[in-house]
Design brief:
14 helices, 7-stranded mixed β-sheet, Aspartate Aminotransferase, domain 2, 444 residues, 4-stranded mixed β-sheet, globular
Length: 444
């Protein structure tokens, strides 16, 4: 090979969500536990579990063995057939999903899971509109990107946007779009706004939301918000879809984020941590009312790789490992410790605007004015490809052996749930060091 692995990757393949010029992807050759290793032998602490998906860490042997065993037994069969693994994962899901979600469609990504949810909602209700929220992400396929509120949608409009998707403001107590002054008033105002939209839009099939917004801020809703949204949807006969692609599988200190508020959707979508991302799997789970509808109505959806045996086997192992290792409780404990350590940096670094999270789903948000929630960058800056301070910080952290995802104005801290206090201390000490750059930027 005349090109290096990194050079060949950049020359022959697309890097996602970026300009292609100047892309120099790191050549990774190994990964284990909470670390991955590059071709030069340098180890990196994985503080974002890659893309918030390797919840059980790298090289979990139980999941790897499940993949191997399934490949030896039955690597593929068309989705029209029944398999042992399909029945087993379905029965296991009944134990861990919110009560009443009891009929499943298996795809190969969170994007596909959301596409299925939209089509199911439209077929079931006979309506076509979907209400999503700004500062959301629901995937990159036509339906998923149309329902995405953040700047990634802009590049596909108008031709690539599906008709019928409208947006509500996301609930954000730190920087409330409606200008409220307390978490409770923020939750009430945003629920009322959603109610107003449903009343005036007409033909609304479903509302989709991340119970805790993921990449766009780790936004924790006030306690009064999700229960009120559930009431509003029930009142109007609108389906409620929860996108738990990122927030599920113990990430927030509960099996699913919606469990914190005891709010059950009509449809739930999830992916990522369901198989620890070792094999691509997406899940769309519906309640019994929706399932009953399709007993006598045509279910007009499907994929060649639906219920692929090799995707389902690792999900069984992953769920069992979450239970065996007691990772939900561990997520709570380590998340509390991580937030405490990051909060400890606030007095030292005026560039920290906010630290928030549930479990090991945490955001550290920057500000360019001490004591105020003034962002250092905007979605417009991101879309324009401007150099962002948060990206500079992430690059500096990589140089120090810590990988963490940065998005516009915040760090997305979501390590494997197996992370130790000692590893958290290493990460926080490195974040402490690089934040001096953000502090200095406030004075420039």
């Amino acid at each position: 090979m005349t090109l290096s692995i990194s050079e060949a990757t950049a020359k022959y393949t697309y890097g996602t969500w970026r300009k292609q010029g100047g892309w120099k992807p790191l050549h990774v050759v190994d990964a284990e536990g909470c670390y991955f290793t590059d071709a030069q032998g340098k180890k990196y602490l994985d503080l974002s579990a890659q893309l918030m998906c390797v919840n059980l860490g790298h090289k979990n042997q139980a999941i790897i063995q499940a993949i191997v065993d399934q490949a030896q037994k039955l690597p593929y069969v068309a989705p029209g057939f029944a398999t042992d693994v399909r029945a087993e994962i379905s029965e296991l899901l009944l134990e861990v999903l919110p009560a009443g979600l009891n009929k499943f469609f298996y795809a190969t990504s969170g994007t596909e899971a959301n596409e299925a949810a939209f089509k199911i909602a439209q077929m079931y209700t006979g309506k076509y509109k979907i209400i999503s929220r700004y500062n959301s992400y629901h995937g990159s396929t036509p339906g998923g990107i149309s329902a995405t509120g953040d700047m990634r949608r802009w590049f596909h409009e108008p031709a690539g946007k599906l008709n019928g998707v409208v947006f509500a403001p996301e609930v954000n107590p730190y920087r409330c779009p409606l200008g409220t002054t307390s978490p409770e008033s923020c939750g009430e105002a945003h629920a009322n706004y959603l109610n107003y939209m449903i009343e005036n839009e007409g033909n609304v099939a479903a509302v989709i939301m991340e119970p805790i917004v993921g990449t766009n801020g780790i936004l924790i809703p006030p306690d009064n918000y999700l229960p009120r949204v559930r009431e509003i949807c029930d009142h109007h006969g609108v389906l409620l879809i929860f996108d738990e692609v990122m927030s599920g599988w113990g990430r927030t200190g509960a099996m699913f984020a919606c469990d914190h508020w005891k709010t059950i959707p009509d449809i739930m979508t999830t992916a990522k941590g369901i198989s620890n991302a070792y094999v691509p799997l997406g899940l769309t789970a519906t309640n019994g009312k929706i399932a009953d509808f399709f007993e006598d109505n045509f279910f007009a959806h499907g994929h060649t790789y639906e219920a692929h045996p090799l995707t389902l086997a690792p999900a069984i192992a992953a769920i069992k490992e979450i239970r065996r290792l007691n990772l939900i409780e561990r997520s709570k404990e380590m998340g509390t410790y991580m937030v405490e350590q990051l909060e400890g940096l606030k007095a030292k670094h005026p560039s920290i605007g906010d630290v928030r999270g549930k479990g090991l789903f945490i955001a550290l948000e920057l500000t360019k004015e001490a004591g105020k929630n003034v962002p250092t960058a905007t979605k417009i800056d991101k879309a324009a490809g401007k150099p962002l301070l948060i990206e500079k910080l992430c690059g500096a952290l990589m140089g120090r052996g810590v990988y963490v995802l940065g998005w516009v104005n915040h760090l997305v801290i979501a390590p494997p749930l197996i992370i130790t206090k000692e590893e958290i201390d290493i990460a926080v000490s490195q974040i402490d060091e690089v934040l001096s750059m953000a502090d200095e930027a406030m004075d420039s």
